[in-house]
From TrEMBL:
Pfam families: Thioredoxin, TPR_19, TPR_20. Residues 52-63 have a biased composition (Polar residues). GO terms for molecular function: protein-disulfide reductase activity. InterPro entries: Thioredoxin-like_sf, Thioredoxin_domain, TPR-like_helical_dom_sf. GO terms for cellular component: cytoplasm. GO terms for biological process: response to stress. This is Putative thioredoxin. Residues 37-65 are annotated as: Disordered. It comes from Halomonas caseinilytica. Residues 58-174 form the Thioredoxin domain.
């Protein structure tokens, strides 16, 4: 059973009441059959914007989909906004004709279930309710608005993969216990464990599902390098938009390809045995960098500099600088090992 998450904090972007977005046109809906909205934590109907003390007890079980995932229209939008006085609401504006919307809604539904009543998901079909969408200022879908205490807290625009939505929610809600690993986490764990084939398969699926999310293409390239396909990885990187191609993650993968071309193979490294001369230590460090073991590789390069500063026409220092460039100036390893390099030189 997934325990309901707790709201960590809310930082309203605008103190103006969220309902004022409607310019008074929908804040008082009269003569409509407004369906009651249930507090997912208690199973009791939520009372309008008044007594927050009535609905604070935790639920005794996992709420049903009907309690936490609601189709929104003109008949219940007012009640949903009033419910946000007691339970945070994710209002997802979407359209069945929009492919990005059809990608986003299942992700939101999954995460709503995982959080077990920490918030309500309201789904507003803008094709059926264009007047409400217009009053909300929705210009494109999907458009997700986080509402609490009648106020707009934050919004997420455009289709986002599960990992990004999870991180966004994590700013406001504690992660639910027992949450499943995301595909990104599974792929990263597989790559770290040396299972490049599994990582490659997962990233290929993510690229197919989210073709505009270039970060997945970069990670697929990384998995291809680990899987012994550096040329495919290079082609994938070259096809990226220029700004993504020149960003630190892509540079890091390209550096891995280049280091891999320069380094000895794993079999050749093994054949070095217990050799402890500068050449052997440099080649081991280069192999580690090529395999993405950056910290071990950086430490090895520093060790070469300490014992043999002039080795290979200053090869260790030059390689360190290339690794720093590949990782990016703000990467923790770059920051830490720049300091170590400075201390060694001066």
């Amino acid at each position: 059973m997934t325990r309901a998450s707790k709201v960590v904090s809310f930082r309203p972007l605008n103190p103006t009441r969220f309902t004022r977005i409607f310019h008074g046109k929908l804040t008082r809906i009269q003569g409509l059959n407004i369906m009651p909205i249930v507090d997912p934590r208690t199973g009791e109907p939520l009372t309008p914007s008044g007594d927050a003390e009535q609905n604070t007890a935790p639920s005794q079980g996992q709420p049903s989909d009907a309690d936490i995932i609601i189709d929104v229209d003109r008949g219940n939008i007012q009640q949903l906004l009033e419910a946000s006085m007691q339970v945070p609401v994710l209002l997802c504006c979407w359209a069945p004709s929009s492919e990005p919307s059809k990608q986003q809604v299942p992700v939101l539904e999954k995460l709503t279930r995982e959080h077990g009543g920490a918030f309500i998901l309201g789904k507003l079909n803008i094709d059926d309710s264009p007047d409400i969408a217009g009053q909300l200022g929705v210009q494109s879908v999907p458009d997700v608005k986080l509402v609490s205490q009648g106020g707009l807290v934050d919004q997420l625009q455009g289709a986002q993969p599960e990992q990004q939505v999870r991180e966004w929610l994590g700013k406001y809600f504690q992660a639910p216990e027992g949450a499943q690993q995301t595909p990104e986490e599974q792929a990263a764990a597989a790559l770290e464990a040396g299972d490049s084939a599994t990582a490659r398969r997962i990233y290929e699926e993510l690229v197919q599902q989210w073709p505009d999310h270039t970060a997945y293409q970069v990670e697929l390239a990384r998995a291809l390098v680990a899987d012994g396909e550096p040329q495919q990885a290079r082609q994938l990187l070259e096809a990226l938009p220029p700004e993504e191609r020149d960003a630190a993650p892509a540079r890091g993968v390209r550096a891995s390809i280049e280091f891999g071309e320069q380094a000895l193979s794993a079999e050749e490294i093994a054949a070095l045995g217990d050799r402890d001369d500068s050449d052997a230590r440099y080649q081991r460090a280069l192999r580690q960098v090529a395999d993405g073991q950056y910290e071990a590789g950086l430490e090895g390069l520093l060790a070469v500099m300490r014992s043999d500063r002039a080795y290979g026409d200053d090869a260790a220092r030059k390689t360190l600088l290339r690794v720093f460039d590949a990782l990016g100036a703000d990467h923790p390893l770059t920051v830490a090992y720049r300091r170590k390099l400075f201390a060694l030189l001066y």
